[in-house]
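Lab notebook, design round three. We kept the backbone fixed and only want residue identities now. Task for the bench partner: fill in a sequence for the structure below.
Input structure tokens:
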């Protein structure tokens, strides 16, 4: 018998940057002060120097768009001169100037907004009849190159998918998950080509973005490189940053930040300064006319800070986190389902991050999902329960998940030695049955309908699932696999034929399950619900008291521990009511006052309780304590 002492709540924070998020994702609007500046030094190289003209043109500066609005703009220069602003540049021009140091700054107040371009309708992939002015965004460039390896990888990711938004999402998410973001000194100062990044599997933000654009362009998807600045929790300050924009016919250019896993949406700390065909485009140009004078130029300096942040971002998805097994043994794996529903009538891509959890099985703290308008889909993680040194407790860990906008949902998982353990095979089989890999085409010639044989099953009971498979086409189909969890049965179907198949399985948890009909590379699914009632295991621990005096009164504790919720519990001592509890889950301690004179015989203890569906259970024990110093007259009656 396990001595379960009490329940301990453990708050296990994920050891990652997500554990202490510091961003502006959940604000509706922020006001950003931006300063773009640089300097150039005059260098005399010979006699009779003369400087006739200096022209410094800034190519990186903010423009109004759906995500940002310029509310103030000022230009400064030393020596003082007027700035000339055009669509493509801001030019500082000095005529017949002194031979000295030149500096400038462009200062802005910018309102940025937490906005999404609403793609309401499905766009067919691949694109056809691409407009001429967009075709240039599908060709390789110096850094955004395309080789056979890039073409192959992009084609594998997009294979079979005919939804343009989902193809773009899959490309972006693949780069985010498979290319390591690394501030390696080899790439921090010099941008590497996309082909190099794919081969070496790491890079900085510019290089991850380059590879994503290369993959998109290799599939005929127009994409361009964006330069700007963004607030980041690496240093908790604004930094220069690169992301992509992808063209969506009928909707325009939509942002995808593969470094931050923000797809189709950007947090409002992003400030766009420029877009271009290639990531190697210059940020500033210098021109001068002189005799025996050179101009030594310096890098463009981009500085930003948040002046104000207001409002709350709208909630666009609803999500619930739930461990499929809410009670497990030490060291057991714990499959966790995150059910996500798109609340909007347009496409939404969302990234979810683990903030609190027990151990994560494969180390993946974030997962992303794309949802069509009003679509609902699950995501799955696998956690593991820690092995605790003291196993005489029930431990509880919180699981907390946040989305892109810092909205959070949480749940709990219990682990103790009285619960079941689940290995990798059973967990992955269960997850695959709940959310099988979606094939690109459905098996249209077959229908499958599955249902449980009764309303509920106990967790130790063999459940029966009845599946009806019917031919709905005009073909004879051979070798159709009908699968539930890890069990598959092979059948043939003639035209207009139907077959019945029975699966038997011991389900451990309630939920939606999936049966699959597989034929060649096609699948058809049937979802059904199984309600599982956990049969309660109740442990009654009686405090050990070796002896008691006849005239003595002692307190004794009874401890009741249950692994599942029980109802209407009554406890009787010698057929007399001692306690009544409407509902119990976990641990209950009762203190009894015992008189030695009442313990001359064993005192029976009877427990009666009901499970979740009203079934009664009974548990009996007894109190047997040695009574000492019994009076002689009482002994006389004991002999009768």
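Proposed sequence:
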């Amino acid at each position: 018998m396990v001595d379960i002492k009490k329940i301990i709540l453990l708050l296990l924070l994920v050891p990652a940057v997500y554990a202490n998020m510091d961003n502006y994702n959940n604000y509706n609007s922020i006001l950003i002060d931006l300063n773009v500046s640089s300097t150039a030094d005059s260098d005399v190289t010979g006699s009779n120097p003369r400087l006739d003209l200096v022209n410094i043109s800034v190519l990186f500066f903010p423009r109004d768009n759906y995500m940002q609005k310029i509310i103030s703009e000022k230009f400064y220069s030393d020596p003082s001169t007027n700035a000339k602003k055009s669509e493509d540049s801001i030019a500082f021009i000095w005529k017949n100037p002194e031979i000295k140091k030149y500096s400038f700054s462009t200062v802005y107040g910018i309102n940025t907004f937490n906005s999404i371009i609403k793609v309401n309708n499905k766009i067919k992939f691949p694109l056809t009849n691409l407009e001429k002015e967009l075709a240039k965004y599908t060709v390789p460039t110096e850094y955004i190159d395309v080789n056979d390896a890039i073409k192959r990888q992009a084609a594998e990711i997009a294979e079979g998918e005919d939804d343009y938004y989902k193809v773009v999402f899959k490309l972006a998410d693949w780069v985010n998950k498979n290319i390591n973001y690394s501030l390696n000194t080899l790439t921090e100062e010099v941008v590497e080509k996309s082909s190099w990044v794919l081969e070496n599997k790491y890079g900085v933000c510019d290089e991850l973005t380059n590879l994503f654009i290369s993959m998109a362009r290799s599939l005929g998807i127009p994409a361009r490189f964006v330069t700007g600045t963004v607030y980041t929790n690496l240093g908790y300050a604004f930094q220069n940053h690169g992301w992509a924009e992808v063209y969506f016919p009928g909707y325009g250019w939509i942002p995808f930040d593969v470094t931050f896993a923000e797809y189709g949406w950007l947090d409002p700390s992003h400030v766009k300064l420029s877009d271009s065909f290639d990531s190697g485009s210059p940020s500033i140009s210098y021109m001068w006319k002189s005799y025996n004078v050179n101009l030594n130029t310096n890098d463009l300096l981009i500085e930003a800070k948040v002046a104000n942040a207001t409002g709350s971002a709208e909630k666009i998805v609803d999500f619930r986190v739930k461990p499929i097994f809410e009670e497990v043994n030490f060291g057991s794996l714990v499959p966790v389902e995150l059910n996500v529903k798109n609340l909007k009538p347009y496409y939404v891509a969302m990234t979810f991050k683990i903030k609190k959890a027990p151990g994560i099985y494969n180390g993946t703290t974030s997962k992303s999902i794309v949802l069509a308008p009003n679509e609902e889909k699950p995501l799955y993680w696998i956690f593991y329960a820690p092995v605790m040194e003291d196993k005489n407790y029930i431990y509880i860990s919180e699981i907390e998940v946040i989305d892109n906008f810092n909205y959070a949902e949480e749940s709990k998982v219990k682990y103790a030695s009285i619960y079941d353990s689940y290995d990798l095979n059973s967990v992955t089989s269960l997850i695959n049955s709940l959310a099988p890999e979606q094939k690109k085409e459905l098996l249209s010639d077959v229908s499958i309908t599955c249902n449980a044989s009764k309303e509920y099953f106990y967790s130790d009971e063999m459940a029966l699932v009845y599946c009806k498979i019917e031919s709905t086409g005009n073909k004879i189909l051979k070798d159709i696999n009908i699968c539930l969890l890890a069990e598959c049965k092979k059948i043939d179907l003639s035209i207009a034929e139907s077959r019945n198949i029975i699966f038997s399985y011991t389900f451990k948890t309630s939920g939606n399950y999936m049966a699959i009909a597989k034929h060649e590379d096609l699948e058809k699914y049937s979802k059904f619900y199984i309600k599982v009632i956990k049969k309660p295991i109740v442990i009654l621990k009686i405090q050990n008291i070796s002896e008691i005096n006849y005239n003595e009164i002692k307190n004794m504790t009874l401890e009741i521990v249950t692994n599942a919720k029980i109802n209407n519990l009554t406890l009787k001592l010698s057929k007399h009511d001692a306690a009544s509890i409407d509902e119990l889950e976990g641990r209950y301690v009762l203190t009894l006052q015992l008189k030695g004179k009442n313990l001359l015989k064993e005192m029976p203890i009877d427990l009666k309780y009901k499970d979740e569906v009203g079934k009664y259970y009974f548990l009996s024990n007894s109190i047997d304590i040695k009574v000492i110093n019994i009076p002689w007259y009482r002994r006389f009656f004991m002999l009768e």
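Keep this in mind before ordering anything: The helical segments are 132-135, 148-158, 164-178, 185-188, 194-200, 205-218, 424-434, 632-639.
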